[in-house]
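request received
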Amino acid sequence: MNIHEHQAKRLLRSCGIRVPEGGVARTPDAAREVAIGLKGDTWMVKAQIHAGGRGNGTFADGSSGIRRADSPDIVAGMADSMLGERLVTDQTGPDGLKVKAVYVECFQLVDREFGLGLVVDERSRSIALLLSGQGGVEFESTASRSDTVHRLAVHPVHGPDNGQIEALLSRVDLDGNDRRGLHEVMTRLAEMFRSRDATLMEINPIGLAGGRWVALDAKMVFDRNALFRQPEILAMEQEDRAHEASKEASMDGFNYREMAGDVACISVGAGLSMATLDAIRHCGGEPANFLDLPPDSRVNRFLSALELVLSNRNARSLMINVFGGGIMRCDTVSDAITLIQNSKGIDLPMAVRLAGTNARLANRRLKEAMPHVFLADNMSDAARHAVSAAQRGEKPRQITGSPSIMSRLLAALRPR
Amino acid sequence: MAILVDKRTRVLCQGITGNQASFYVERAISFGTCMVAGVRPGKGGIRHLGLPVFDSVAQARQETGANASVIFVPRENSAAALIESIEAEVELVICITEHIPVLDMIRVVDAMKGSRTRLLGPNTPGIITPGECRIGIMPGEIFRPGSVGIISRSSTLTYEAIEQTTRVGLGQSTCVGIGADPVHGLGFVDCLELFREDDSTEVVVLVGEVGGSEEEQAAEYLRDIEYGKPVVACVVGENVPENTRMGHASAIVKKGFGTAQEKKQALGSAGVHVVASPVSIGQEIRALLQSPGG
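response:
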């Protein structure tokens, strides 16, 4: 789970790490007010999105996601040009992310910049503490493979000991008070990382200004699986959600993501869902979505999933690929399909592949209730059929789903 | 022969009184798995599903000689349950629970240093040696004893590989789900080593997916060793967008790192027979075993 820079800086401040004064704004006027309320005569205006690389990122007008202003009116103007626009960085993908808020903070002049970070390192199955002698160096994907960044493994229970941190600091050019100061920041950050269940924390760059360390940027990612014991972090997501809803969240307990193609698909289990996308592409088709249902899904959840994919205007065919096992039984799937068919009808050609627990029963029921449905023996056959049906498919469809169903689904938008 | 579990494996279940645990333990018993005990702190002394229930793993182990534990404990307490079985020196721990905080798993992995415990999972469908021992949540109908060893990150794709190998009449020696979480116990390389030593395994199937570096590590291992058995692999997720977590916590491509293409290439250059889709696993193995070179 990502939080915004302004939230991350609030956390840093709470554990005694210095950050520039600043405030959040969601309108140009509010941005001007924030600037007026802050001391100084130069401000930074920073787009708040859940992705890094903002300084080098660009808006459609070519301007950057982090800009410097020397009057409150310029601050307001920059906020105006950012808010509501999409910022593209090397971490957002080509579509970029829409900016819903800007963070206005006092410009901080620094003598030197470093990079500091902590990250869960999957390969070594440990926490890595990272330090770079220059600020702004890319950390996130370099945890395992960069040699420009100095690193050490942090003990998951006791944290890094002083000797370890000293050894790390000895690899950059720092001494005396400056070194002691950064040592203290590293200790505090590592403590917060562990106590807050973070998976990534970056202060990059961290600047040295007149002998004091100041966090110029901050990025934090938290473990969604640990939110049950992190109420304060969870609240940050909700505070954010009050202003913006993400369609990328998991809905009603399943993972859904809209994609650009026309073959809708439903699958159970992440691995099989990914294989389903691959199978559609192998047959020359383009998936309209990714939808992964958890293996303990009952009929209701399948109904929601079916309604959701059927509401996608771009879909021209539907592929269902399920391998029943454990609690997941194939007749649950066939029941959901026939229920939808009987209540409102399914207007897409369908290819269904059911295997594993109760597959024979489910296939028989489907064949009786819906003889026109293609029952595939394996996922390649299903994909081939769905793709060719989509390619034959006619004009964009009329969406018949009632608005109440869609609003119910959107209301179900919530973190897992 | 098989790897990790066979008919001599004596299994206890942590969290046995839960709904899911009860459902799967009952199925394991009917399959013929040697289930010997349950553990549920505070409920020691009762019997559940015909098994004695103990307050602690150490006690259960002492009383019943259990040497493997399957964990269905809710994620809030999973790390404690894992560490308890590590401290009780259980030889094989299989953690079915999913959504365990990653820092908890780092603590568990740290607790395993120097211990004799092997861990499968978390977020694993379990392990099965057809005809001998089944631990976990895999469907029972699709297996058949045979000569293919299967290792997979994804549960559903494990089933897919099993069905493929059953359909071509080969069957499985042991099927291992290593789990889909970023920080977990036994990995591809550990299981490859075990299958290499196992006489009943003639072919190994490796089912990978985007994200992480397990497939690359497997490729590294296979490149540097005379493995002696053919390895067939598929890697799913070549069409997932970057920076998008696709269901599994570990299935994420970051800045071009961890792509399916990269993994397939690494495996291919290490002499692994890489198939384009899980659907081709069966045919590929049959072709391999029929070809004179093996």
